[in-house]
């Protein structure tokens, strides 16, 4: 029980470190979307958002080993030692990729690591979704519906995180053009469209995290 309390506390802490800074990112991007703001303010908010977003990404990565340890400590599902080791290895590698990418932001290395991270998230999302859906449909390998539903939603979170990341990419070029050549209707429209899609993805992410937290705390079914 002591182990479960420790891992449970860490799980909650990582959840807070994920959601809190990402709300800051959301608010910063809302400012960036406003063309009437001075460009220096908008650019500062972009830099702030990119720096803040590293914390939720690290929290997401750390959730893998923390989650598997909590699952074992609560005896929700028997954890195979190899499965446990795989989660730890994946989590550590993911953290390393994020740190290296953040320290080399704007370089070809960071871009390559970003694609590697997205590929991993696609595959991890498929795994969680398939595992959760199969358990919900058949009661196996997980017979607790609330836990199966939680795994399914975690898989969806991977995909929504990818959607937010990819939605932001079209923002970079028109915003750079505004910096270099000035604002135009077309450039501001492209910025607003990219940020609008990013913010929608983030809003959906917040809803999913709230639902996952509720399932874990209330175990409603």
Name the features:
7 helices; 221 residues; single chain; mainly alpha; elongated
Instruction: Output the helix-strand order.
Output: HHHHHHH
Largest sheet: none
Task: Please state the overall shape, judged from the principal axes of the Cα atoms.
Answer: elongated
Helix coverage percent: over 70%
Number of strands: 0
Rg, Å, rounded: 19 Å
Note down, in words, how this protein is organized:
There is one protein chain. By secondary structure, the chain is mainly alpha-helical. The protein has one domain. The protein has helices spanning 2-32, 39-52, 54-74, 81-103, 108-138, 145-181, 185-218. The chain is elongated and about 60 Å long. The chain starts with a helix and ends with a helix.
Write the layout of secondary structure elements.
Layout: H1 2-32, H2 39-52, H3 54-74, H4 81-103, H5 108-138, H6 145-181, H7 185-218
Helix pairs in contact: 1-2, 1-3, 1-7, 3-4, 4-5, 5-6, 6-7
Concise summary:
The chain contains seven helices and no strands. The protein has helices at 2-32, 39-52, 54-74, 81-103, 108-138, 145-181, 185-218.
